[in-house]
Amino acid sequence: MTNAADPFIFLTLVNQQVCTQRSWKRPYGVGLLVAGLDESGAHLYYNCPSGNYFEYQAFAIGSRSQAAKTFLERRFQGYDDYTPEQLVRDALSAVKETLQGEKLSGSNCTVAIVGRKDDGTVEPFEVIGAARVQELIDSMEMEVAEQAPPLEAAAASSSMQEEGERGSDDAAAPMDI
């Protein structure tokens, strides 16, 4: 069994390695994430700027990628049981973890899928349209809003809690001056 991504990875590494054999050349200096699919399933390779490559089940590269890696590390063990839509939603959540001062939207995020469908047939490489990505983001935000308590109820319960903590004025200790 050979992975469809193996020839690409191999050729890239050979070219990078040739660059390290001469003192006036250097490796490419870029990181690549390469996804492939074979009989054994989907594969994700990270080709380091140094020329090394590793296979991962979930990975992120780029600025502020550590937040996404942490998110993925906490959840990746359940990914075998996820549907493709659940995987995309998790990937979008990981990307959302990395944003600072920006809002995740279908216009600033591109999603592509490679793997198997729910029925086991091979799904060719597919880029999901921006409108569909936006629908997924909107549904994720609605779920978060539904899980959060309404603002009025939260404010009322916190004021009631403060009153309960204070009790009556007779029980309050005087302030030292």
List keywords for this structure.
177 residues; alpha+beta; Glutamine Phosphoribosylpyrophosphate, subunit 1, domain 1; 3-stranded antiparallel beta sheet; 42% helix; globular; disordered C terminus; Proteasome_alpha; proteasome
> Which percent range describes the beta-strand content?
15-25%
- The CATH class designation of the largest domain is Alpha Beta
Predict the CATH topology of the largest domain.
Answer: Glutamine Phosphoribosylpyrophosphate, subunit 1, domain 1
Q: What is the CATH architecture annotation of the largest domain?
A: 4-Layer Sandwich
Mean pLDDT, as a whole number?
Answer: 77
Distance between the termini: 80 Å
Overall, the morphology is: globular
> What is Rg?
24 Å
> CATH-wise, what's the superfamily of the largest domain?
Aminohydrolase, N-terminal nucleophile (Ntn) domain
Order of helices and strands: HEEEHHEEHH
The neighbouring-strand order within the major sheet is 1-2-3
Region (Disordered): 145-177
Protein name: Proteasome subunit alpha type
Keywords: Proteasome
Pfam family, one: Proteasome
What would you say this structure looks like, in words?
This protein folds into 2 domains: 1-56, no CATH class; 62-158, Glutamine Phosphoribosylpyrophosphate, subunit 1, domain 1. The chain is 42% helix and 18% strand. The protein is built from 5 helices and 5 strands. The chain has helices at residues 6-20, 65-75, 84-98, 130-147, 151-166; strands spanning 32-38, 41-47, 53-56, 111-116, 122-128. The chain has a 3-stranded antiparallel β-sheet. A two-stranded antiparallel ribbon has the order 4-5. Helix 2 (65-75) runs antiparallel to helix 3 (84-98). The N and C termini lie far apart (80 Å). 8% of the residues are buried.
